[in-house]
Amino acid sequence: MTSIGTGYDLSNSVYSPDGRNFQVEYAVKAVENGGTAIGIRCKDGVVLALEKLVTSKLQKKDANRRIATVDRNVGIVSAGLLPDGHHLVSRARDEASSWRSTYKAPIPVTSLADRMGAYVQMYTTSSGVRPFGVTAILGGWDAETEVDVDGVVGKGPSTGAGGKTKGAKEGGAYLYMIEPSGAYWGYYGAATGKGRQAAKAELEKLDLDPKKGATISLEEGVKEAARIIYVAHEESKDKEFELEMTWVSAVSGPTKGKHEEVPKALREEAERLAKKSLEGEDEEDDGKMEE
Amino acid sequence: MNHLPQAWGRPRDDVYGQYNSAYLPSSHHNPTTHTQSPIVTGTSVIALKYSTGVVIAADNLASYGSLARFTDVHRLKPFNRKAIVGFGGDVSDMQYLTRLLKGLDTQENYADGSVAEVDSDGDEVEGEEKPHMSAKNLHAYLSKVLYKRRTDFNPLWNALLVAGLDEDDKPFLAFADLLGTTYSSPSLATGFGAHLAQPILRRVVPDEKASEKLSREDAVKAVRECMKVLFYRDARSMNEYSIAVVDREGMKLKESEKLEGQSWAFAEGIKGYGTQTV
């Protein structure tokens, strides 16, 4: 719902007569021009993927990593203005570090998302600043095993850290998306950037809702994420792109609870399958046209 | 004599009552405290370089003065695949440094290195990134922290050994303490170990050349022997210890090793020991 915000769109933090902050809405436009970023919450982890549109042939391949790590177990991928994305990651890292300093434990992904949302929102309240030109997708895994307190000395009580419900399952995968307004929600599948419409359509086709009993494994998630980025890239067909993918698994899984880049072999396999699947679709389309 | 400045030159407490520091200027309400004394402490840490790596060991005891208070304390703290720090001295300062190093490791992990780890054959190891900081870098960092604190008259009351590999994956071993003193040698020990274990270690490895010829088995054997001697003679030690070996292939840390081959037979021949009723 675009409308001209004449007079009320020149300053940040100013309300229009119909209650909108136009600067925030214009910030969303900056996001929509960026390369597609997606996140998939799997049964045993989270996959993040990014369509990195190549701006110069002089750039070294596989350098310029854009999906950032926060603490050890959380990843952030953003679409939109790159420097704004960097700044947001820097703040997230500070928040994680200050939480660790106070509580001697890693920050829960929910708390980190909350702090990032609050931070982004602050930039919608003053005309001296502009809103963030990024939508950030935050994916992480809270450890399902008992994690020792930082700097732990000795074994501690046999019952472990206090305040626990007996038999309750700890930890799990979390996926959040924070918008330029500061609003954020938890997702099973999230997409932003230029190809987000196509990506969202593909994500909805996957069964991801654990309450409905259907979830996918991390390996499947990696393959699907690659395929979805290739589908979303159709929006920017004329430009070259690189696929960057990262994942976080459970402590018992392939990444041992850490946020890491997907191993080259697995990524290349996923890309190969993605390309094959796209060609398959083209053949189908050609077939239909002949009819 | 009470060495603290706030006790000098004031009217006597038993005649005029205790001085109320609230009447001082706001910047002087709390007296500046200087050098502390360590409270809960760990004893010696010993380490030995061999041909392709380093062995380091420390017992699992944290003493509260003469009380053997905590017997499950691990004083060997791995940093990354290439470095391990062994702490002697104050345990709360050990915790502070451990947390500091954890933060440092997290920050180092953020850097966009993308340099692949190379194994001993020179082939790239799939999926492994070369750690940015070597044991040498870690020791430099810790030395600077310790010296800074000593200069501020607020020392971290520790004596520590940094063991591991340097940038060229060669064995590295160095010492740093609460005064900011640092030194390096093929064999090192802190505390009582410097008096009791070093002579034994130096017989095994008199110089760098001998260290380059020493095998892993012999190095571990020498360190275990020294841990036994320390239990015999150090009154603030324990018979359970942690031992770690770091080499190119990685780090092996064992945290509940028991001393073997002790002989207390000498006690039979001395009055008052064992089950004697003299």
UniProtKB/TrEMBL annotation, chain A:
This is Proteasome subunit alpha type. Its main location: cytoplasm. Gene3D superfamilies: Glutamine Phosphoribosylpyrophosphate, subunit 1, domain 1 (3.60.20.10). It is found in: Cytoplasm; Nucleus. It comes from Cryoendolithus antarcticus. PANTHER family: PROTEASOME SUBUNIT ALPHA/BETA (PTHR11599). Transmembrane segments: none annotated. GO terms for cellular component: nucleus; proteasome core complex, alpha-subunit complex; proteasome storage granule. Residues 8-30 form the Proteasome alpha-type subunits domain.
Automatic annotation (TrEMBL), chain B:
It is found in: Cytoplasm; Nucleus. The keyword Glycoprotein does not apply. The keyword Nucleus applies. Its main location: cytoplasm. It comes from the Eukaryota. It holds the Pfam family Proteasome. GO terms for biological process: proteolysis involved in protein catabolic process. Keywords: Cytoplasm, Nucleus, Proteasome. GO terms for cellular component: cytoplasm; nucleus; proteasome core complex, beta-subunit complex. Belongs to the peptidase T1B family. Non-catalytic component of the proteasome. This is Proteasome subunit beta. It comes from Cryoendolithus antarcticus.
